[in-house]
Design a protein that fits this description.
Chain lengths: 534, 325
Amino acid sequence: MPLFNHARRAIVKCAFAVAAATILSPSVHAAETPQYGGVLTAILHPEPPSLNPAVQQVAGTQMVGSKIFESLLTYSFDLKPMPGLAKSWEVSDDKLTYTFHLQTGVTWHDGKPFSADDVVFTYEKVLSKTPRTRGLMENVASLTAPDANTVVFKLKTPYSAFLYAFDIGGGAILPKHLYDVDTPVAQNPANNQPVGTGPFKFKRWERGAYVELVKNENYWKKDRPYLDGITYRVIPDSASRRLAIEQGTVMQAWLQDLEPVDVPRVAKLPNMVYTNKGYEYWSTMQWIEMNNARAPFNDKRFRQALMYAINRKFIAEKIMFGQGVVATGPIHHNTRFYDGNVKKYDYDPKKAIALLDEMGLKPNADGVRATVSMIPLPYGEMPRRMAEYIKQNLSKVGVAVNLESTDVGGWVSRVGAWDYDMAGNGVFQYGDPAIGVSRTYMSSNIHKGVMFSNTAQYDNPKVDELFTKAATAGDDAERQKYYSEVQRILVEDVPLLWIADTNYGTVLNKRVHDAITTGLGVVGNYSDAWLSKE
Amino acid sequence: MKRIAAFLARRIVKSILVLFMIALFNFFLVRAAPGDPAEILAGQSGAADAEYIQKLRQDFGLDQPIPVQLMSYLKHIAVFDLGYSHRQQAPVATLILNQLPATLLLALTSFAFALLAGVALGIQAALRVGKWGDTVITTIAMLAYATPLFWVGLMLVLVFSVQLQWLPAFGYESVGTALTGFARVIDIARHLMLPAVTLGLFYMAVYTRLTRASMLEIRQLDFVKTARAKGLSERTVITRHVLRNALLPVITYAGIQAGHLIGGALLVETVFGWPGIGRLAFDALVQRDYSVLLGVFFMASIVVVVVNLITDILYTVADPRIELK
């Protein structure tokens, strides 16, 4: 009986919402006025080791840390820089001087005033040592604070993606008065009681259970935030996470909180809103890395043959359940300078066989032309199913695949050490190819033992040159020219098997409004987010 | 009493040796897995460079040769210093002590549930052997015995949390309600119910079957006939003579269960989002957080050694003919 009532109420509500939407405006939410109060609950999985995004860049750290700490900039859905702790900025004509004007009236959660000194300190002493920002800071000739509200970066050489490195994961600002001590940043006790400038203050963290944030009454943005607080709940089991969101115990699930197979069903529930927005800045891909230094992967024809032999459309639709779209090349379609006008690799086993024949890889008595191994990406169920399906695809063209499943530790250490034939992988693109794409293909980034470097060991001087030119070019039109060319070369060369551009979604309870407002999605600061009454 | 003291002394010396061997074994075991915590942390950040990983290894003390790391580990463990988790930036002892109460609560509750319900059902089945009551109980026991833990957990959640909405589906307590005193105890008890039943169900079935079988066996023995012949009431015969003897195999099994509880707790803690040390250990394993993993292993081995000791002493209480050697 209760179930039936529930469903009927839901149908009535749904019908009402549809009616309201047609009558009032194209967007239901825009028609409602924000309300104060309420605590948003969200899934936190996996539980991060720290909440300080200047110390660690794990996804969970960024999601929670982005409410407590702030960075100078954030990015819109179409990847334009937006104000954060910097309210405006200027770039000099020679593209070497970046001046940031900071927000005024900003205080730390402990009441101390925030100033440009904090920014200079954080970049010089903390961020210059993190993997995300170290390279950026090596190109900085000087960093100064001419007054309390201005910060000036002077570069050694022009770097056209400079403005894209100021997100929370790359540039969270820490309070100098707490971190300017002898203790190393990672061991600073302030990490367990984080003090930031953000719209929410840290209240408590019960490890294994939940993280509780409360409203910052003195937030610099007037009349914000709307929410009284945010509670992140640690729910280790994927079936329990699905239940929790269905029941309304939690109101937000993102990235891989839900198994892809569950997403379409949960998204359709009457009390849910589903959106693909808010992943533009990350724009990860699912690819199968190939060890380009090993035979037969050192032959371009073999790599192309594999690309033809894999039914990527099937993977995107039936294995990723729409959480991915077929990739066209090295740059995600949401990342800047994407160019889809490249050679196409539609599913075509005949072409694959022709290429393998041309190479002289003849099938033996069992129909096997080559035997290779593959390590599936060790995150969740979906990548394993994908690997199993690719194994079937490849067996049809005579390439036998041995799957070697391992956990994150085994995967990181083997791929990093080049001890693999094929392996699932994919990295964040951070909005701009100079930050998140070139690192995978440039020969200068071939480092044994380092994960997320050019572990395929692809080496093409022309590609190196184009990426380098694009990273220092003055204007976007010029950069587009280089990136378009590099995309065409890479797609012809197939250093990796690009399976899909991820198309993750966020499931939100209908009560949640204006949470996803930037290209960083749930890693936004949530100062505008609000809850309607139950 | 003196005998017990001598027994205890001997056993404690043996236990320390065993613990030392376990610690040594664990040390190499956790390092046998590929990858190290620095690589994994860098891996999860989605960005890495050689310098950063090297710096992490230095911070974690992983740049030292293995024998040096081993010596330092053994030295610390000898004085019960479990070390520091660089990944979680907290002393291992603090991490374990924070989460141990939740696991102990879960384990002891499910242990008590399994033992009491199992023995009670076993007695009832034995008294009604061959009748429909016996059939119902043995069928329940069979089902509980044969069904995988995680599935039972999910089904209980579906029935009691989703359909009936009587009990919360996961977590340790209600978040954000700031309950205190008795209200908080009730709240935790409500959260405890499903995971404790899930974890205890399998052993409840074991105890039911054990109790029933050994009661049936002992009921045939001559001393029971003698007890009846001398005119004792049926109740006295069952409790004083039959049950007491029938409990010996149950105690043996209870000792084994206590050792298994932490392993089982891991699964149940995952399904129910219970913040215990099973979760802590699993996360530490995935993240190669060596110090936490070793700490949990060490704590678990202490628990098992102590429980074995208690089991041996309990034998003599149940059956005074057994001597402590």
